Amino acid sequence: MEPNIISRIREDLVLSVDEKTKASCSRFFKEEVLCYGVKSALVRKIAKNYFDEIKSENKNEIFVLCEDLFRSDYCEEAFIAAEWAYQIRNDYSEDDFFTFERWIEYYINNWAKCDTLCNHAVGSFIEKFPAYVENLKAWARSDNRWVRRAAAVTLILPARKGNFLNEIFEISDIMLKDKEDLVQKGYGWMLKEASKSHRKEVFDYVMYNKKDMPRTALRYAIEKMPEDLRAKAMKK
Questions:
Q1: Which class does domain 100-236 fall in?
Q2: How far is it, in rounded angstroms, from Cα 67 to Cα 53?
Q3: Residue 128: which residues within 8 A CB-CB, separation 6 or more?
Q4: Which stretches within the chain are classed as H helix?
Q5: Which of 47, 74, 123, 146 could form a disulfide with 80 if both were Cys (CB 3.0 to 4.6 A apart)?
Q6: Alpha-carbon gap, residue 235 to 206, rounded angstroms
C-alpha cells in the first residue's frame, strides 16, 4: 500500500479549499466543527480516486486508514473514511460491528459525520447481519447523543425498504422523550422513511404517542404523509 496516501489526501484537500464553502461550513452545525472547506462533490471525487488505489488491500488495512482519517477530526476526512468503509461492505464480518461502534463513540461529534457513516456503512452491516439490530437498542439508551442518533439513522435505508419495522418502533419508544433535538430529528427521520412502506402503522404509532412525542420528531415522522393525515397528527 502507498505509505503516504493519507498525506496526499490531505494535500489535495488543502489545495481544493473553496473560501465560500469554508465560510459557510459552521452554519449547518450548533457545535464547533473542523472543516477544510471543500465542496462535497469534490470530496466525493477525492474519496473515489484514492479508493481506487487501495481497493485491492485487505479490509483491516483499509480500516486502519479510515481510523487515521477519522482521528483528524476534519469533516471532509470523516466523509472519506465513511465512504471507504461503505465501499468494502461485501467484506464485512460480524466483528466489524464493534469497530463501527468504537468509531461512533470516539470520533463522531456532529450530525453530518454520524449520518455519513451510519446511513451507509453501518446500515449495510445491519442488513448483512440483522441480529445486530438488537445492539442498536443499547445505543438508543447511551449517554452519548451521537450514539443515540446513530441507533436511528443506521436504519434509514433499511426502513426505506420496509425492513425492521418492529425494531424501528422499539428504538423510537426508547428515545421517545429524548431532550436532544438532533436525536428527535434522527428517530423522526427513521419513522418517516418507514412510513413510505408502512404508512398506516407509522401513523397509528404517531397518533398513539403524540402526547409524549416532541413536536420536532412528530413533524419529521409525518412529513411524507398526505395533508389530511398530517393535519390530524399535528392537531393538539
A1: mainly alpha
A2: 17
A3: 89, 92
A4: 5-15, 19-24, 40-54, 59-71, 75-87, 96-107, 111-116, 123-128, 133-139, 145-153, 156-160, 165-175, 181-195, 199-209, 215-222, 227-234
A5: 47
A6: 12
pTM listed for this prediction: 0.94
Task: Tell me the per-residue pLDDT of 102-156, one tens digit each, with 9 for 90 and over.
Answer: 999 999 999 999 999 999 999 999 999 999 999 999 999 999 999 999 999 999 9
CATH of domain 1-91: 1.25.10.90
- Domain ranges, ordered by start, for the chain: 1-91, 100-236
Name the grid cell of 126: 445491519
Q: Is it true that 1-91 and 100-236 share their CATH fold?
A: yes
d(CA 65, CA 57): 11
Cβ neighbours around 208 below 10 Å, total: 10
Q: How far apart are CA 123 and CA 165, in angstroms?
A: 14
